[in-house]
Every structure is written in structure tokens, then in C-alpha cells.
Specification:
The strands form 3 sheets. The chain has a 6-stranded mixed beta sheet with strand order 1-2-4-3-5-11. The protein has 2 domains: 274 residues, Aminopeptidase (3-Layer(aba) Sandwich); 113 residues, Alpha-Beta Plaits, CATH 3.30.70. The chain starts with 9 loop residues before the first helix and ends with a helix. It is α/β, with parallel strands linked by helices and 422 residues long. The chain is built from 12 helices and 12 strands. The chain binds zinc ion (2 copies). One zinc ion binds next to loops.
């Protein structure tokens, strides 16, 4: 039998919860670190995370959650749920678990996965122990964050619509309770020209590599007129094969980012596209423009959740850095979720100032500092969830602070559909 807690003031209740959650965390250490290590040792890139999704789903099933695998037509997604009583909040822990090509878990998503699992297991034990707190605990497994925009498809499928709030944590170079990020659009420009003998009759050729080079130069010149908060970065993925044939094909892959999703879609992306169109015109090539992956919306952190995380960082003994005055210049598909429900996406430090997406970060994410981030992160999110389950007024405050944004369709694969958003 579980023991009912006393009727107490919220603060005392929090402290009681903290003591309880810390003691449960002590029991779960081996399990949570094993999940983090096993995912770390077996890095799977976007939408190939079969091992990680299965590992997390199995752990949740074993703990009494009902699990739906492969939601939103994504094989490696899942949704787990545990309900208590009638009504109450529905709070979600978000897991990411994809790795980077060649680098492995240099973004530390093994930590995100174990934190999401740990937060849910701790919170479930608290609700079981309390016996009086109604609500639903949900865990959503979101694949393909690194470039695949898994959450974008899941937003479109309505996977987050019944949630009151979603919590996750990301490892990084500092403890940061809340942040905004840049929206991001991925573009490809494929130029088609005409092959010719580069020495004997180059005049018969149309040089597709020239179109790519002109595009890169046009983007470079455009930077002077772009807001400093914008980011444009591109590679020429195909620039021809051999010097003695005029290249008939070239391909640029570019990312365009800005803090405001509207500015990104309405202004920046069309200007970058015009660079490619101008280059095609100048060289006589044709250009095919594609948006190969879902757009990432800018992340809007819920300010009330941010304050709660800030307080709870102090409670677990981690010192935070001041909130950033500008958007963090990266992007996450959690941004798309933040347009439809209140979310928080804090950073937990694994090494001061660490360079993420590096071999060094991969090593740290699987080492003792990564382990500490798993345990602290799980406690941090569980404390926050406990406060939301206990306080209806706090949850109301969270919802009142939420500003719905743009639901970007997952498939924006041509300019027409992009214009449809404007
Ligand atoms: Zn990353
Ligand atoms: Zn990441």
C-alpha cells in the first residue's frame, strides 16, 4: 500500500517530494545510466534509431506504462502513457536519441533519452506513492532531431495536442534554464548545365559549377545586408567530376536561420533563393530548388516553466548562467512543438563551454559528467513535473504565458507551399 502524504503547503510539499524523488533516484541510478551508456555505445542516425526506441519503450513498458510504437508514421517514434485517477494535468517528457553521422553522440542525445525516461519513472513513482494526485504522465520518443525534423511530422500528426506542457533537457556547456533558438530552413539548389570537352570546345558547355560558385559569392555579399542574428551556411556537395569535362551538374546544400520564423520564411529564404536564381540566369543553367527536410521553428521557451527550472537548478545544486539576451544560434525541432504547447528545453552542463557536435563532446556525453547530467536532469524535470501536478494555479500560469505560433507543415518541398505560409 502506498502512503498518502499530509495536507501541506506547496513549499513543504515540494520539499517532501524532493526527498522522495531523491530516494527513488538512488534506486534507479544503474538503470538510467545503463540506458544512457547503451544508446551512447550504439549511435544510430536520424530515423534509424531502432535500438534506442526499443530500449526506451521496453523500459517504460516494464515500469507499467502503455506504449504505442511508431506513431506519426515514424518507425522509431513512440508514445508511452501512465494515468492516475480522473482529470489532472497531462505532462510529457520528451526523449531524443539520434546520433550524428561520423561523430556519434556528440550532441548528447543519449543523455536526453535517459533524462526523459528518468523524469517519467520518478514522477510515476511519486504519483503512485501520493495516491491523491490525478493526471497523466506521457513520454514521447522523437526521432531524427539532427536534421530530420522528426517532431515536425509529429506536430502535424497532432501528437502533442493533448498535452498541457512538455519538458526536456539538452546537454551543453552551461546550466541554462531557458532559451530561444533560431528557426531553420534547409535548401538544396541543383544546377543543370551541359557537359563539353573543357579544352577542345568549352564554348559548347554550360558550367553548372560556375552557378554554384556564383551562388556562394552572392550569398557572401548578401551577408552585409542581413541581420547579424541571421545565419546562412552552405556547402557545394557536387561540383563536377573531372577537370576536363565542363560540369553539367552541381549541388548546393544550405541552411538558413533566423530568430523570427516569419522573417525567415518571408524574407531570408526568398533572398537566398534569389541568389541561386540569379546565378542560374547568369550561367545559362537551370536550377531546381528543394526544401528537403521540415523547417524548424524558433524555440519559444515558456517563461513560467523557465522560472521553475531556474529554481530547481538551485535546488539540485547547479549554478545557472544568466539568460541569453539573444537567441542561441542553433536550432531544434522542439521549436515546432513550442508553437503548439508550452515547452521548456533547458541546458544541463556536461563540461564548461564544451564544443558540441565534436568528438570531445561524444566522449564527455558517455563519461562521468554525462552520467551526472542524466541523474541531475532527471531529478530536475521530475521536481518540475511534481510542482505542476501539485499546483493547478501554477499550471494555469504556464498556460496563460503560452503564445501559440505558426504550425509549419512538415512537407514544405517547393516554393509554392512556402509562399502559402506567407
Ligand atoms: Zn545537435
Ligand atoms: Zn541536440
Amino acid at each position: 500500500m502506498t502512503e498518502k502524504t499530509l495536507e501541506v503547503t506547496p513549499r513543504t510539499a515540494d520539499l517532501d517530494d524532493e526527498t522522495f524523488l531523491r530516494s527513488v533516484l538512488g534506486e534507479l541510478i544503474d538503470d538510467l545510466l545503463s540506458v544512457s551508456h547503451r544508446i551512447h555505445e550504439r549511435p544510430e542516425t536520424r530515423f534509424q534509431e531502432y535500438f534506442a526506441a526499443d530500449l526506451l519503450s521496453t523500459a517504460l513498458k516494464d515500469a507499467g506504462f502503455t506504449v504505442d510504437a511508431g506513431i506519426a508514421d515514424l518507425d522509431t517514434s513512440f508514445r508511452a502513457e501512465a494515468s492516475f485517477g480522473e482529470g489532472g494535468p497531462t505532462l510529457a517528457f520528451i526523449c531524443e536519441y539520434d546520433a550524428l553521422e561520423k561523430i556519434g553522440h556528440g550532441c548528447g542525445h543519449n543523455i536526453i533519452a535517459a533524462v526523459g525516461l528518468g523524469g517519467a519513472l520518478l514522477t510515476k513513482r511519486l504519483l503512485e506513492q501520493d495516491g491523491m494526485l490525478p493526471g497523466r504522465i506521457v513520454v514521447i520518443g522523437t526521432p531524427g532531431e539532427e536534421g530530420g525534423g522528426g517532431k515536425s511530422y509529429m506536430v502535424e500528426a497532432g501528437c502533442f495536442d493533448d498535452l498541457d506542457a512538455a519538458l526536456m533537457i539538452h546537454p551543453g556547456g552551461e546550466n541554462l534554464s531557458a532559451m530561444s533558438t533560431l528557426g531553420r530552413v534547409a535548401l538544396t539548389f541543383e544546377f543543370t548545365g551541359k557537359a563539353a570537352h573543357a579544352a577542345v570546345n568549352p564554348e559548347f558547355g554550360i558550367n553548372a559549377l560556375d552557378a554554384s560558385i556564383l551562388t556562394m559569392n552572392a550569398i557572401g555579399l548578401l551577408r552585409q545586408q542581413l541581420p547579424t542574428s541571421a545565419r546562412v551556411h552552405a556547402v557545394i556537395e557536387d561540383g563536377g567530376d573531372v577537370p576536363n569535362i565542363i560540369p553539367e551538374r552541381s549541388l548546393i546544400r544550405a541552411f538558413v536561420r533566423a530568430p523570427d520564423t516569419g522573417t525567415l520564411l518571408n524574407d531570408l529564404v526568398p533572398r537566398i533563393i534569389n541568389c541561386a536564381r540569379g546565378a542560374a540566369l547568369a550561367t545559362g543553367c537551370t536550377v531546381s530548388i528543394d526544401l528537403p527536410t521540415p523547417a524548424y521553428a524558433a524555440l519559444n521557451s515558456n517563461p513560467v516553466l523557465g522560472r521553475m527550472i531556474e529554481d530547481n537548478f538551485a535546488r539540485i545544486g547547479r549554478k545557472t548562467v544568466p539568460l541569453l539576451t539573444e537567441a542561441f544560434p542553433g536550432s531544434t525541432d522542439m521549436g515546432n512543438v513550442s508553437q503548439v504547447i508550452p515547452v521548456i528545453h533547458p541546458n544541463v552542463e556536461i563540461q564548461p563551454g564544451i564544443n558540441m557536435h565534436s568528438h570531445e563532446a561524444t566522449e564527455v556525453a558517455g563519461g562521468p559528467n554525462g552520467d551526472k547530467a542524466v541523474l541531475d536532469g532527471a531529478l530536475l524535470l521530475a521536481l518540475t513535473a511534481a510542482q505542476l501536478f501539485r499546483s493547478e494555479s501554477l499550471l494555469t500560469e504556464v498556460k496563460q504565458a503560452f503564445r501559440p505560433g505558426l504550425r509549419i507543415p512538415a512537407q514544405i518541398n517547393n516554393l509554392e507551399s512556402l509562399r502559402g505560409l506567407m
